Amino acid sequence: MATHLVSGSFQVSSKPARQPTCEFPHALLHNSSSHISVSINLKRRQRNFRDYASKYGTIFRKSSTWTSQAVLGEPGSLEISRNNSSLEVHDKNGLLMLKGLTFEGLEEWCVSKGEKPSRALQLWRWMYYDNMWMRCFEDAAGSSSSSFGRAFRDKVEPLATVDGGLELADVHEASDGTRKLVFRVSEGPAAGGKVEAVLIPILRSSGRKERITLCVSSQLGCAMNCQFCLTGRMGLGGNLLTAQIVEQLVEARRYLASVGDKTPITNVVFMGMGEPLHNLDAVLAATSIFCHPMGLHMSHNKISVSTVGLVPEMERFCRESSAQLAVSLHATTDEVRDWIVPVNRRYPIHELMASLRSLFPSQDGAGSTRRHVLIEYLMLRGINDTEDDARRLLELLEGIEAKINLLIFNPHVGTMFAASTDEQIARFRSILIQGGRVCTVRDSRGDDQMAACGQLGDPVQRGGPLPPILAPPARFREGFGGGAGAPGEGASPGPT
């Protein structure tokens, strides 16, 4: 793969951020047709940038001030600069993508163009609240709700766009009412690919829809190579921009309105394609935009961001966001987690648990309102679902304010794994509840349309070499037939 170093001027810290290192370095590189030109004017020492970018081409982090990303790919269209509050991203036509700005960033931009700060609120409400159907400034002409004068439109149209860099290409509806939205990406590192979001209806006992949870993506593909996940089989195709994450919610609301569905989207979960904390800047900005009271008006308590456990990024996320954190643990020993969640080789279980213990300390009598971490645990037959695993999980979570969510495995073509039986899941959950933990079992939703957890994406669309299938630990190899099949009934051969 050809490597094109990012152009531009960085003022960066002298020590690069740690990277999740696994046995598939190519999976940590962005494979993109776009190229970012970055210009940041901050007073930091300029050291190690060129060598580091050429080696990793991924996340740069300054713990307290800013993060950005370098993208490997052919020279292309995207340009990024920074004001004091947020990254300014320009599309292939050189227009500023306003949906990539936080409210504070939008205020600064408006003032820099000779407008009053109040213009930012007008724009903000126009993009996210009053005029959901309007996709460009031309649509505001003659709109009494926008009150944009011709002089302002003439000024801003050559400078900025409200396009989110996504186009709704297809909708797949499952038998249970779950709907998968397939988006074509038109801007940024993931341009040319397709990403997916999922509308999950939450039903009342009567069967009526009460609300909807939207599952959003943060990347095209994923670099983490979790062995049970179809998205992980893609490798990383590129990070989504802030505007593209935000646009998933905007487009989802447009879609529901277009089909006459008035059920509100009350929750957003970053559990779609990608590792959200591997694209942390965009995710932090998107959660800020989601929760602004004069726009999309989501609650931080109703937004959950899931991670496989990138410890430094996880700690920064908890400092800078009030959204909920979910950690995909999936194993109770390093032997198993090194295999099925390879980033564990960089941040092993003891380091991950120590970090969670400091971020979410448990206190007697604190009550359920304390901020807690959600532990996600995928039940894989014969791999991590024994009663000993349940008891080890209780031990690992000592001193951590946590709730546990057991996940049912959703199969896909070529998988090496099988779902635990209902009886085994019930026994596992019973041990956790007896140990004093709140434990729920997440139903599979949308699996008949490949819309369920672990089923999003298409490795074929990315092209090029795929991340490797890792050999199982020795004690599992007999059940896997040397690593090519899953234990239990209904196993299918793994990809070659």
Overview of the structural elements:
This protein is an alpha/beta fold and 496 residues long. The protein folds into two domains: 92-163, DNA polymerase, domain 1 (Orthogonal Bundle), CATH 1.10.150; 166-476, TIM Barrel (Alpha-Beta Barrel), CATH 3.20.20.70. Helix content is 25%, strand content 20%. The chain has helices at residues 49-56, 103-112, 118-130, 150-156, 242-258, 280-291, 311-320, 334-340, 349-359, 387-396, 422-434, 459-462, and strands at residues 7-9, 37-39, 59-62, 66-69, 79-82, 87-90, 96-97, 160-161, 166-173, 179-185, 194-203, 209-215, 219-221, 236-239, 265-270, 303-307, 324-328, 373-379, 402-408, 439-442. The strands form five sheets. A ten-stranded mixed beta sheet has the order 9-10-11-12-15-16-17-18-19-20, covered by helices on one side. A four-stranded mixed beta sheet has the order 1-2-5-6, with no helix packed on it. Helix 7 links the parallel strand 16 (303-307) and strand 17. The relative contact order is 0.11. Residues 479-488 have a biased composition (Gly residues). This is 23S rRNA (Adenine2503-C2)-methyltransferase. One of its GO terms (cellular component) is cytoplasm. One of its GO terms (molecular function) is 4 iron, 4 sulfur cluster binding. It is found in: Cytoplasm.
